[in-house]
Design goal:
It is a single chain. By secondary structure, the chain is an all-alpha fold. Helix content is 75%, strand content 0%. The protein is rod-shaped, with a radius of gyration of 24 Å. The termini are far apart.
């Protein structure tokens, strides 16, 4: 869901945005710039990158399985 917001910019900044980005794309451009500063997306991106690393995921699974075996041995 999007919310409408009114901001005030220097005329030269607005003109530059209009020329460089295009009138209908300014809101998305500003949102893309601001989002990393107000949302904690860095952690999400890091987790996605780790999950995409198949070798790392295989090592993590092996480690988890070995840990589960250690816990089972300790319970005996």
């Amino acid at each position: 869901m999007h919310k409408r917001m009114t901001i005030t910019l220097d005329e030269a900044v607005y003109d530059g945005l209009h020329r460089a980005i295009g009138k209908r794309r300014i809101s998305q451009f500003i949102e893309d710039l601001v989002k990393p500063h107000v949302l904690d997306t860095a952690l999400d991106a890091g987790y996605r990158a780790m999950a995409a690393d198949a070798e790392r995921e295989a090592e993590a699974l092996q480690w988890c399985n070995a840990l589960a075996g250690d816990v089972a041995d300790a319970a005996r």
